[in-house]
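Quiz preparation item.
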C-alpha cells in the first residue's frame, strides 16, 4: 500500500472542496477497507509531511479530508450535508454567522455550492415551523431578498439593517 497515493487522493478531493468517504477510497485503486485506512490516517497525523490529513466519523460512514484545503467550519457543513441533515446544517450556519460576525445569512447562500438547494423555500418553511429552531427568524430587504438570523445572537433591527445595507444601501451610497 502506497501511503503517498492515499494522501494525494485525499488532498485532491479536498482541493475540489469535498470530503472523500471510506467507501469511495475502498473503490479506488487502493482497495483497502475503511478500517485499515483509519489506522493509516492515525499514523499520517504524526508525520510532519502528512499531519494535514484527518477524518470525521459519521453515523455510518467515515470521511477523510486535508485540513490544508478544508476549514473546520466548511468540513462541518460538508459532513452534515453528507449525513443528509440539511435543516440542521442550515440552522447551524445561520447561528454561527449571527454569533461570530454578527450578520444575517442570505437564502441565496443555500442555492450555491456545496448546498445546491432548489427547495430552499420548502426548507425555510420547515425550519421556521420546527420547535427546536424557534430562534431562527426571517428578514427581508426592500428589494425582496430574504435572509435568516438567530435572535439569540442578533436583534431584529440589526439583522434588518444589515440585510438592507447589503442588498440596497451599499449600491446607493458609493
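Solution:
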Amino acid at each position: 500500500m502506497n501511503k503517498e497515493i492515499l494522501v494525494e487522493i485525499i488532498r485532491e478531493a479536498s482541493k475540489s472542496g469535498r470530503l472523500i468517504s471510506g467507501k469511495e477510497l475502498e473503490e479506488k485503486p487502493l482497495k483497502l477497507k475503511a478500517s485499515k485506512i483509519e489506522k493509516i490516517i492515525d499514523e499520517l497525523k504524526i508525520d510532519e509531511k502528512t499531519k494535514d490529513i484527518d477524518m470525521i466519523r459519521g453515523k455510518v460512514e467515515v470521511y477523510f479530508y486535508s485540513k490544508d484545503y478544508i476549514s473546520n467550519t466548511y468540513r462541518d457543513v460538508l459532513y452534515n450535508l453528507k449525513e443528509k441533515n440539511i435543516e440542521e446544517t442550515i440552522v447551524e450556519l445561520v447561528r454561527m454567522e449571527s454569533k461570530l460576525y454578527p450578520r444575517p445569512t442570505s437564502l441565496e447562500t443555500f442555492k450555491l455550492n456545496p448546498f445546491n438547494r432548489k427547495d430552499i423555500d420548502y426548507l425555510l418553511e420547515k425550519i421556521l415551523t420546527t420547535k427546536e429552531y424557534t430562534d431562527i427568524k426571517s428578514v427581508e430587504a426592500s428589494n425582496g431578498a430574504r435572509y435568516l438570523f438567530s435572535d439569540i445572537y442578533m436583534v431584529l433591527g440589526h439583522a434588518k439593517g444589515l440585510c438592507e445595507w447589503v442588498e440596497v444601501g451599499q449600491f446607493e451610497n458609493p
